[in-house]
Design brief:
The chain is about 15% helix and about 25% strand. It has two helices and five strands, in the order βαββββα. A three-stranded antiparallel β-sheet has the order 1-5-2. A two-stranded antiparallel sheet has the order 3-4. The chain starts with 7 loop residues before the first strand and ends in a 21-residue tail after the last helix.
């Protein structure tokens, strides 16, 4: 149907390296992925069968069908509003289901938030 929207969105799934706008997180830590670590995580996401839910809530899987997932290779891409896609960032594109599309169109969802498990390790600066 030509009149129906594609319900496609593209956004930064995760930024490589520390965000200079964030001094420390809510828990007092400062977590981030290096470019190489992020690339591995992005590949693992696809290899394990990508699942997309809403608001980190169980039972909401299937809110989107991932159709693109890649590491941006540059140059910097200024999206406006202070958002710049940089070399090494993980981008993800998906087609949203009708509920998620409605939430997106009404501004209730506006980005990706990967959910997973990690170990925090301290980086010793030389």
């Amino acid at each position: 149907m030509a009149d129906e929207p594609q319900r496609y969105v593209l956004g930064i799934a995760y930024q490589a390296g520390p965000d200079p706008r964030i001094a420390k997180g809510q828990d007092g830590g400062r977590d981030y992925f290096t470019e190489a670590e992020l690339e591995k995580a992005a590949w693992r996401f696809l290899q394990n069968g990508p699942q997309v839910g809403l608001f980190h809530l169980d039972g909401t899987e299937g809110a989107a069908n991932v159709v693109e997932s890649y590491i941006y290779r540059g140059p910097d891409w200024d999206l406006g509003d202070g958002i710049v896609v940089r070399k090494g960032d993980w981008l993800m594109g998906a087609i949203l289901d009708e509920r998620a599309w409605h939430l997106y169109k009404t501004g209730k969802i506006d980005g990706w938030s990967p959910q997973g498990v990690a170990r925090r390790r301290r980086v010793v600066k030389e």
